[in-house]
Amino acid sequence: MLQGSNLACVRGDRRLFKDVNFTLEAGTLMQVHGPNGSGKTSLLRILCGLSNPALGEITWNGTGIRTLGYEYLSNLTYIGHLSGTKDDLTVLENIRISSALAGMQITEAQARKALAYMGLKGRELLPAKVLSQGQRRRVALARLLVCKTKLWILDEPLAALDVMAVKLIQRLLERHLADEGMVIMTTHQDIEVTTFSKVNLKLA
Q: I need a labelling partner for 131 at 20 to 30 A (CA). Which of 63, 102, 122, 160 fits?
């Protein structure tokens, strides 16, 4: 279980949000809403341990994430709003290296299977620089198919995706939640994910 208690975020002399509270249990999706500049990305980065809240505490199964350190991070996969692909690496190299950097070594066969699911079969050996923005996003999201983490934190995962790709991600999220995974995401697009509990968190 992930809990946020009285979280606040300040950037420079501006307070983005305060008094943010939530509880996220297994099989639950939390969708973070709010206008541009309300602190959605900042909140996700705080939940990933990439930055500290100005106030408040985040706990994982009752213990602060700063105390847990890697024990918490090893349960988490974060995909930011940028694709993070490296132009001069092939599609195959990108998913294998990004997985390795996240602490998970995957085989070429595993990588190819994930890329095929994301509609990238036949493009595995292309350099990322020749891909469209939507294809780059598919490469980044393919990592969700090979990670074994319980908590997924996704910043605008549907950005630049076409209708077919959105449906692929929808099914992937549904499967993760059915396996008692947990998802926190921001998105400006509508997505219908069934068989789960949902929490809506609104930032002013």
A: 102
- Two tokens, residue 177: 């939640």
With respect to residue 82, please indicate whether it lies within any of the assigned structural domains.
Answer: no
Q: Using alpha carbons only, give the angle 32, 35, 38 rounded to the nearest 5 degrees.
A: 75
| End-to-end alpha carbon distance in the chain | 25
Q: Which residues pair with 9 in a beta bridge?
A: 17
- At 16 the three-state DSSP class reads strand
List pLDDT tens digits, range 99-145.
Answer: 998 888 999 999 999 999 999 999 999 999 999 999 999 999 999 99
Q: Which two tokens stand for residue 161?
A: 């995706």
pTM of the model: 0.93
Q: Could you please report the per-residue DSSP string of 160-187?
A: T--HHHHHHHHHHHHHHHHTT-EEEEE-
| Nearest in space to 184 (alpha carbons), one of 153, 155, 144 | 153
Backbone torsions φ then ψ of 196, nearest 5 degrees: -155, 165
Q: Which domain holds residue 33?
A: 1-75+150-204
